[in-house]
Amino acid sequence: MSRVFFSKLLKKVWEQQKGLPDFTIHYWDNSVQNFGKKPKFILHFKNEGALIRTLSNPTLGFGEEYMDNNIEIEGNMKEFMRFVWTTNIAKLPISFYDKIKFLFLNITQKNTIIGARKNIAHHYDLGNDFYKLWLDRHMVYSCAYFRNNNESLEKAQEQKIDHICKKLRLKKGETLLDIGCGWGSLIMHAAKKYKVKALGITLSKEQVKLARERIKKAKIKNCEVRLADYRELNKTFDKIVSVGMFEHVGKDNIPAYMKSIDKMLKPKGISLLHTIGVMREEGVDPWTKKYIFPGGYLPSLDEISGEMGNHKFSIIDFENLRMHYAKTLDNWAERFEKNTISIRKMFDERFIRMWRLYLNSASAGFRHGNLQLFQILFTRYNNNDIPLTRDHIYY
Is the dihedral of CA 149, 154, 159, 165 positive or negative? Predict the structure, then answer.
């Protein structure tokens, strides 16, 4: 019964949506369903339970069944992800039972000061050795900045860091706060090149440990990393930056974040927010919230700008680096696959399949879905000491 329903659903999608990749479905009963003549991928359902779980909860059900090897994707996974994002088939209604489970998940993942530490540890405390295997040599775990299609990930990440520093117009002797500093690459660069006094904060113990080691080894002065929540600081700064952290704030805490920036930013200060977001509010899917980013939330542009306005902040520069993040994720996915032997020694096969799904799905989401990468520079309404052009960023 489930196979018949699913077959009709796919046929309807195929007929209505133009430009989809050719693909084939293999079912557990050896029946085959072809869409087009040259399949880019073959989707294998190894048992009926896997299909039933997918139909009851398209993202969580499919993701867990894939992780458990009850579903296989043969061929080009990026083309499969393009199909998913283009058709919105993952947006099928979930069952009432799954809705209740997702509601409970949201309640237990609230980003209180204690809850945020637990949520961050789930993802970022997997171990520094794991991230070293597939990130660039600077250990930057956020969207890179490519000037052309042939640049290496290393160069693109260096360019991203300096692109941000130029936007902030860092000057010698200024104070800089990096909220969610990761392994410290941005504050190290800012302190070394621009001679600022930089403080980085993170909720990941693993990141603090390695960042401090890197700063000490590089003998960089005026550069410090602390294990702290942004809501706990009681200092003011000339410049404040946050790169890839705002996604972990949560919908309910967006006002608290902006209130904290308002409190910590000096009267003529400038802040930059670099975050994944969406053009229309739609929430994070259950699979990603459960397995990848507990407590995560992707804010809409309206939510961000509205709350900035509530605190009398003015946006002075805006970029959408959507395609830059797609390229970054492609690089990560490729490096991840090259190191699966080493990763398998740290984790099990289920973990590898989970991360493979995450990296490829995210890449397709930026190319074919609603995922955006906002880089927003803002200051107070009455700060008129702003350059008339953007020349300082590019020259």
Answer: positive
